[in-house]
Amino acid sequence: MIAFGVALALAAAALHGTWNVLVKVGGDPIATFRRATFASAAVATIVLIPELLVLGRPRLSAAAIGFCVLSSILETAYLLLLSLAYRRGELSAVYPIARGTAPLIAVAVGLVLLGERLSAAQLVGVGLLLVGILAVSLSQAGGRGTVPALLTGVCIAAYTSVDRVGVRLASPWFYAWLLFTLMAMELPIALWIVSRFRDASAAVRSPGWRKSVLIGAFMWAGYFLVLWALSLAPLAVVAPVRETAIVAVAAWGVWRMRERRGAAMKLSGAAAALVGVVLLAV
């Protein structure tokens, strides 16, 4: 079953990396996410119907709802920050920074708040993560996308921690549906609030609905596959496998999107971050 869990995590990594590429090349990122969240909620609802018929009444507690609401708020903030990072920075830099920062923060929380101790291999992993993130950050001229990418990583670490607790208090498939439904409602509200304080005229072309639906479907499917993988394999196995997309997306940005500035630093930094994640999971 662990091997199947690894396969699911690899599929989730492929989906996650793919929708990030599509968001970057699809026009204005926030316009993409506005449509994609509706699409992901619609896909989750369509899938929910046969699940209710086959699996019956879902398990759901009041505490799980609370965790899900908190996670949805954090994930809405994540989408806003990721959109800003993609507006300002390159895919091959933003993605490794955001994905590499999250496990680093998780380690810091474990050390400071939970009194955890790291092995020698894990300490090396922390060092590689720091070096990798720094290398990718320095590869960006001006680094305007670095700060929102780092904050995106903070949100990833936060909502991942919340989901680890919340999903155990509910049926995972129902928890995923509720999460994406809440995000579809919260993002337009968040955008309206932001527009009251900042001119939204900077938005560029919006993507078509077909691409937005594809992104939304990939977002939901990737999240669901991770939950499924975690039910079959240990987190220490799933986490590093899922982050294989760090190197793949960085390479795609350099190769296909011609983000050649600082290419060697980006790719080496992304590779170092991935090895760091693997060592942290040892």
Structure description:
This protein has 282 residues and is an all-alpha fold. The protein has one domain (2-280). It is built from 11 helices and no strands. Helix 3 (62-88) packs antiparallel against helix 6 (146-166). The longest helix has 27 residues, at 29-55. The radius of gyration is 18 Å and the shape is globular. The chain starts with a helix and ends with a helix. The mean pLDDT is 86.
Considering the chains and any ligands shown, give keywords for the structure:
282 residues, mainly alpha
Helix and strand topology:
Elements: H1 2-25, H2 29-55, H3 62-88, H4 91-112, H5 120-138, H6 146-166, H7 172-197, H8 209-232, H9 235-242, H10 245-255, H11 263-280
Helix pairs in contact: 1-8, 1-9, 1-10, 2-7, 2-8, 3-6, 3-7, 4-5, 4-6, 4-10, 4-11, 5-11, 7-8, 9-11, 10-11
What is the helical fraction, as a range of percent? Answer: over 70%
Percent strand: under 5%
**Biggest sheet, open or closed, and with what strands and sense?**
none
- Overall SS class: mainly alpha
Uncertain residue segments: none
Q: How many H/I helices? A: 11
Q: Report the radius of gyration as a whole number of Å.
A: 18 Å
What's the average pLDDT? 86
- DSSP strand count: 0
Count structural domains.
1
SSE sequence, one letter per element: HHHHHHHHHHH
User: Separation of termini?
Assistant: 19 Å
Shape annotation: globular
Concise synopsis of the structure shown:
With 282 residues, this protein is mainly α. It has helices at 2-25, 29-55, 62-88, 91-112, 120-138, 146-166, 172-197, 209-232, 235-242, 245-255, 263-280. The protein is 80% helix and 0% strand.
